C-alpha cells in the first residue's frame, strides 16, 4: 500500500523514543538475491520490500523518528526509502518526525566500516544523545529482514514498566526451529539469565562463548546481549503473533509462497496497521485467457494465455502465451521496455524483459529485470541442491533455481 492513506488515527506518538533499523549487513545467506542490493531492499510479496515491514510497524506504532543504518549495496535501499518515506511521498509523521539514512563511513576516530550490528549502532551513538533537540529516553533497535506485525508502543511500555536496561522481543519455538535463532533462558519474571546464538551442537554452544566487554563487542546476538544478561536487567518481551526470519533463499522463497494461501497467515493489508511502500504509477494487472489459482498478481503485470499456480507475479512482470508457472516467484521489472528498445534487443539476439512464450517455470525465483526466452524450462531437471553459474546469472540454492537480476536466459534453455 502506498502513502495515499495517513497512518492510523490510533497511532499515538511515543515520547522521547526513536527507532534504529539495521540495514547494513551483507546478506550472504540470501545471496544471489543480495548480489546487487542490501537485504532489506529485497522485494517481497510482489509489491513490497523487506524494509517496509519495520518502517510500517514504526509508523503504525507512532514512532516518528527513524534512522536506517546502511552499508553494503545500499543504493537501491536508499532510493526506495527516499521514494517511499521522505517528504513528498505522502506519509505524515507529524511534529518533528523524520526518516534518515546513516551510512557506514570513516572518520578521524572511526577508520573501519561497521563490524557488526552493535558496532553500527555504537558508531552513531552520538546521534542518539539528542534527536532534534529532544533527549532520547529509549531506542528501539530493529532488524530489516523479518516479516511480522508488532505494536512497538506495547513493547516500549513493557520495557518501561519492568524497569529493564534491555528488552528483547522473544517468541516461543520448537526445539528444531530454535537451532536457527538466538536461544534465551528466562526466569519466572521473564528476566534473561542465559543466551546462546543459534545453538546446533554442543561444540557450537561452546564456541559461542566470548571473552569480551561491551566496549569492544561488535554483535548484539553473539556478544552484547549475552554479556549484558550477566550483570544487567535484561527482560524478554513475549510475542505470540506471526514472525518469520527471512535469512536464507529457502526461507525467503517459502515465506513468499505462504502469502498466496487463502487465508494467508500473514496479510500485508490490515486497516488498523497497513504495510506501506513506495507509491507507483502503473496500470492494473492485465490477465488474458489464463488460469490463475492461489497466486498474487501485482499491478502492472501482463499475463497472456497461461497457467499460474501457487506463484507471485511481481510489478510489471510480462508472462508470454502458453506458459506454465507453478511454485515460483517472478519479481517483475523496474520499467517497461519501449518499442524501439525492444526492437533493438530482438535485432541483436537479446532476450526481452519478462517470460517468453511456452515456458515452464517451477520451484524458482526470477529476479527483477531478467529476461527468459521462449520455450525455456526452469525445472531443476537434475534435482541439483547447490550450484553457481555466475557468468549466466543462474544459481541453485536448496534446490531452488535463482535467475539473478538482469540476467538473460536464451530460447530453448533447459535448467
TrEMBL record:
Broadest EC class assigned to this enzyme: transferase
Any GO MF annotation of the entry: transferase activity
Annotated catalysed reactions: alpha-D-glucose 1-phosphate + ATP + H(+) = ADP-alpha-D-glucose + diphosphate
Domain Nucleotidyl transferase: 19-260
Protein name (Swiss-Prot/TrEMBL): glucose-1-phosphate adenylyltransferase
InterPro entries named in the record: ADP-Glc_PPase, ADP_Glu_pyroP_CS, NTP_transferase_dom, Nucleotide-diphossugar_trans, Trimer_LpxA-like_sf
Family the UniProt entry places it in: Belongs to the bacterial/plant glucose-1-phosphate adenylyltransferase family.
One Pfam match: NTP_transferase
Taxonomic placement: Eukaryota, Viridiplantae, Chlorophyta, core chlorophytes, Chlorophyceae
Stored CDD domains: ADP_Glucose_PP (cd02508), LbH_G1P_AT_C (cd04651)
